Amino acid sequence: MNIDSTSAVPIFRQIADDIRQAIAAGVYKPGEMIPSIRATSLKTTVNPNTVQRAYELLEREGLVRARKGLGMFVTTRGARAAQTRSEEAVSAAFAQGIRAALAAGIPSTKVMTAFRKAWRNVRKEERLKT
Amino acid sequence: MNIDSTSAVPIFRQIADDIRQAIAAGVYKPGEMIPSIRATSLKTTVNPNTVQRAYELLEREGLVRARKGLGMFVTTRGARAAQTRSEEAVSAAFAQGIRAALAAGIPSTKVMTAFRKAWRNVRKEERLKT
Amino acid sequence: MNIDSTSAVPIFRQIADDIRQAIAAGVYKPGEMIPSIRATSLKTTVNPNTVQRAYELLEREGLVRARKGLGMFVTTRGARAAQTRSEEAVSAAFAQGIRAALAAGIPSTKVMTAFRKAWRNVRKEERLKT
Amino acid sequence: MNIDSTSAVPIFRQIADDIRQAIAAGVYKPGEMIPSIRATSLKTTVNPNTVQRAYELLEREGLVRARKGLGMFVTTRGARAAQTRSEEAVSAAFAQGIRAALAAGIPSTKVMTAFRKAWRNVRKEERLKT
DNA sequence: GTGGTCTAGACCACA
DNA sequence: GTGGTCTAGACCACG
Questions:
Q1: Hey, of A80, A122, A129, which one would you mutate to test binding to chain B, going by the most B CBs within 10 A of its CB?
Q2: Which domain holds residue B44?
Q3: C80 pLDDT exceeds 90?
Q4: Does B42 touch chain A if contact means CB atoms closer than 8 Å?
Q5: Model pTM?
Q6: Suppose C101 and one of A43, C69, C106, D116 were both cysteines; which one would form an S-S bond, judging by CB atoms 3.0 to 4.6 Å apart?
Q7: What is the count of structural domains for chain D?
Q8: How far off is chain D from C86, nearest CA to CA, in Å?
Q9: Cα gap D39→D61, rounded to integer Å
């Protein structure tokens, strides 16, 4: 889990995004427990209050459910919901980019090229990370 | 110029983005004056201080130069710089979407579909606006 | 921290200069927090918005990094950068004086005398302040 | 006469400084006329109102005296006053630089070095201009 | 508690 | 008319 404290996107959201994507990807399956607040706090050296806030967000989204004294568990429809949410985020990012391109008068061909280039770059990033 | 005061992206940044795209698209050419702070303030009903902040950003980016008592003028290399910046923003949006998709384990085919769908949707939006 | 509200140099710049010099002088070291906006505002009786503007400048210069909810911290290379910037400011002031002297046809000997005199005067000022 | 419309120092002040230095340097001697507002305006492509403001400043300083329908003439004590003013400006610039250096904890030796270096640089600039 | 944004309204300097 | 600075006071997001 990569936390970037310099980023403009708030830390609690970074954590929530990360776990949401993990649920969507099947790392945590329905019925399984996600890492405890304390565990995540220790691993990321993020304030427990901040982690708590991320988990609240996930619970409000219905992806996980807190069980007192036990932990937070992925709900039955959590995996599906996480996928949907993630796909929406992806679509929103694409739409935003395309809208900006149109507004700036960037030609369609260049937009397509930019997309393919971004694709290659991200794949390369991933490969390097491994 | 569409200002969304509920958006998470600050108003001054929305204004700056808007004018940057207009410069990139050739609406304001090098040597020409962009609308005065007061004019933009009136048109958007945004406080002049906020508009000023947006314009300050553009000046820091080197797209525009302020001349007291005269106005703010697009610099010689402003058009090029605005295009570059706009393209970077587009690429960044795409990369962000692709990264999120990979993290969520969304298959490549689905990502491509999402992109094409976003494309169609944005084009439709544009058509409706006209 | 001496703020001169009558000076032609804007207050926010005076504050930025002051803190930049303090960082250069090692008062605030890398990793350490500079006084909060509110604290500086209270101490100087300058409006928080104005202080914020000064701090924004320092962040743009890369001397300091803002972390929401925590404060603003001197960056690793902040100390070096502050020194460099301060030295540049000193050189610029000297160059400006020398250029003016040449333009006014003031003889070299007189310029040197003026420099030594300024030196003595400033040292005396400093002694009085203590 | 070099006018820098991008500079932070206002144009009317640039013009006034320039003429003041010329008077100090003996380019315009007591009793002689300085260039008319129209002439300066044409040569610098600066708005006549702005030139007028510069000339007003010089008159208030007692360096020149307007004679209706004839022009502006250097006063008897104008040369001396211009020299004094110019020297003051030089001293002020030096004092400002030295003060900044002290505040930033720059050691004396480095300040002296910076001065000598600035000296050499400015001399070189002048040589290149010719 | 921290920083970030916005509004309202004022005043100044410049051309 | 133009841009630039400042204050006052408010609200938000973050940790």
A1: A122
A2: 1-130
A3: yes
A4: no
A5: 0.90
A6: C106
A7: 1
A8: 7
A9: 22
